[in-house]
Amino acid sequence: MGKRQNNPKITYEIDPYNRLIINGSGKKSQLSRFRQVLDGRFKTDENNTVTYHIKAPMPQGTEMPYQVKLQGKWSLSEDHNLCLTLNKLGRQTLGDKLTLQADIIDTAKNSLVFALTTTTKGNTQSIYILKLKGAWQADKHNRLTFRIQREQGSHDILTFRGAWEINKQHQIIYKYEEAQLIRKRKKIHTLIFQGYWNIKEKGRVSYVLDQQSNSVFVFKTSIGIFKDKYIKYEVGIGVSRKPKPIKRVLILFGKWKIKKDVGLIFEVEYTNKKIHAITFGAEAKLTAKDSISFKLKNEKNKNISAQLQLSRKILKGDGLSFLRFLKSEEESTVMIGAGLRW
Predict the structure, then answer these.
(1) Mean pLDDT score of the chain, rounded to an integer?
(2) Nearest-angstrom CA–CA distance, 235 and 248
(3) SS3 sequence, 146-195?
(4) How confident is the model at residue 269, as a pLDDT?
């Protein structure tokens, strides 16, 4: 019997222009006879599997497909570049890590969009889009993450390792620096997440991007402080290489109202004067200080360990009706919300 031949292993690389390099020598090499730089573009399918579509014609006699399917796991580098660690599949690859020089340009409710700049061998520069589908969530350290949906219900997780902030419109923003080696300076990127805040649990506050797809950041917090014009929480964000969590103070400014058949609501104004209300149930009782005391509950009538006192003077509309109802009741405490009427 003849001697069994081993199939040659291939390494994949990315050049500074986001072009795929195939190396048939089985190891990284600068020799052109082993390395082939391919003009093309990366594209993703519905399962976020990436394929490199080759555009430029290959040299005569070269056996090369027009598409190269790359199987691997997505991640985010410390510099916020998109990485793909290839699976080890025998002759296909040695398990290389490909890093795409990509700018994040959109953080939609169910997707994350990158812009890639490439240059052909003829020095023609172009920019194209690479879109990943998934859901936004927070990890156990209160960091922002993007869960990329994969086949058979599995996920790859992109973790944004820095600390997020809150702007004046109550939106989450995330900033990161990009080092520009050619110009020897740094560029600041700012990502804005469009959503609204909600409170459903004790020691938790949520920022909802899309309730239907479970794109919701649920942050662990201190006990909330509830006043007549604002709600205040403190959030600790565990950032890499920091011995202690970075603290962020979340203050939601708004107006309290009582709605019949709904309960107690807190209206917060976002961009373009858009109002979103946080709904609470509550145990309410009159106090001797010309105010109403509320023990707050969530929509399912579960205690969230929060107290609120509102002056009777700020009540209008349904609030005045509730005040008259509260005065007419013999019980010291009255329940509102959770489908209860007065």
Answers:
(1) 86
(2) 5
(3) EEEECHHHCEEEEEECCCCEECCCCCEEEEEEEEECCCCEEEEEEEEECC
(4) 96
